[in-house]
Design a protein that fits this description.
5 helices, 11 strands, 2,3-Dihydroxybiphenyl 1,2-Dioxygenase, domain 1, alpha+beta
Length: about 200
């Protein structure tokens, strides 16, 4: 398969999943990256998901100890995610940083059916690099698409996440530049609320 046909296949696949939802970064200097996005790009507020309770995390086929946190803000309809790992074990994040890489780490697409999504990616020859689950059934797989571009995350998220993301999107529309980094609010503030 040549370069152009590979790209068309991925474009078709991304469309199948409703397009790219997220641009994710793994900055060597988290505070500097947060300042860039909030002060230069005007994106915010970011919400902090601290020590995400991931389960059965596998990196290159092996179970790992993985302690990471994420901050997410909306830039229009696109999620901007900044990730950092708290322990030093091998993972998709430490591999990236140790290689001295910068810029876009991965993009995320969202599956309606996780196993169908897995089959679609693997039919393209994408290599699974890291995968994990969350309590409640949410799960992701990070795929190397065999090129110089970013990794692609294919995820299935519990519908409750859509309510949280809708809350974040509303906060972005109303943001006045204050409190650029915030904790996730209590569930009663966003569960069962109308989508943005």
């Amino acid at each position: 398969m040549n370069f152009l046909s590979e790209k068309k296949e991925f474009q078709s696949l991304a469309s199948q999943f409703g397009g790219i939802r997220q641009l994710a970064f793994v900055p060597a200097d988290f505070d500097s990256a947060l300042r860039f996005w909030t002060e230069v790009m005007g994106v915010g507020p970011f919400f902090y998901l601290e020590h995400i309770p991931l389960e059965n995390v596998k990196f290159r086929g092996k179970l790992i100890d993985y302690d990471c946190s994420a901050t997410i803000a909306f830039w229009g309809d696109i999620e901007i995610e900044l990730l950092r790992q708290h322990n030093e074990g091998d993972s998709i994040l430490t591999e990236w940083l140790r290689a001295g890489r910068e810029g876009l780490h991965h993009v995320r697409v969202q599956a309606d059916d996780f196993e169908e999504g897995r089959r679609a990616f693997e039919a393209l020859g994408a290599e699974p690099v890291q995968e994990a689950a969350l309590p409640g059934g949410s799960a992701y797989i990070m795929y190397d698409m065999k090129g110089d571009g970013p990794i692609v995350e294919m995820s299935w998220l519990d519908p409750q996440f859509e309510q949280l993301f809708a809350y974040m999107k509303r906060a972005a529309k109303e943001w006045d530049g204050q409190d650029p980094l915030r904790p996730i609010p209590p569930e009663e503030e966003w569960v069962g609320k109308e989508k943005a």
